[in-house]
Amino acid sequence: MKKSPNHRLSDHVLFALGRSSQHAQRLVRQHMTDGGVRTQHYHVLASLSDDGEAAQATVADRIGFDRSDLVTLLDELEELKFLARRVDPADRRRKIVAITPAGERQLDAMDELIRAAEAELLEPLTAAERKTLLALLRRVSGD
C-alpha cells in the first residue's frame, strides 16, 4: 500500500482505518481469487454455518445482499454441493437453505485463505502489536 503523506487527512485515524480496510479487502479478494473461490460464496456459507439454516430472504438480509442476486449465488453453491435447499413446510413458497458437510469443508478452506491474507496484512507488526491493534479496534467498534 502506497503512503499518502501529503493527503490532508493523512494524520487522521479515519483516513488510516479506511486505507487499511481497503488494503485488507484487496488482500482477501486476492487470496480468494488465487484459491479459486469467490468472497460472495464465503459470506453465504459463513452465515449458514454461524447462524444456522434459514429462508433465502433471511440469508440475503443477514449478509446484506440483494435477494434476487442471492439466488444466483445459491444456485452456484447448490451445484457445487456446498448447500442444500428445501421447501419450507410452513410456507411452501419459501425455500430453506442449509450448509452441507462439503460446504463446511469449503468454508474451513476459505477461512485459511482469510487467515493468510490477515497474516500478510499484519506482517509488519509484532505479535504484541497485533493483539493491541485487535483490542483497540474492538473497543472502537463496540465489540
Automatic annotation (TrEMBL):
GO terms for molecular function: DNA-binding transcription factor activity. This is MarR family transcriptional regulator. It comes from Kribbella soli. It comes from the Bacteria. GO terms for biological process: response to stress. PANTHER family: TRANSCRIPTIONAL REGULATOR (PTHR33164:SF95), TRANSCRIPTIONAL REGULATOR, MARR FAMILY (PTHR33164). Gene3D superfamilies: Winged helix-like DNA-binding domain superfamily/Winged helix DNA-binding domain. InterPro entries: HTH_MarR-typ, MarR/SlyA-like, WH-like_DNA-bd_sf, WH_DNA-bd_sf.
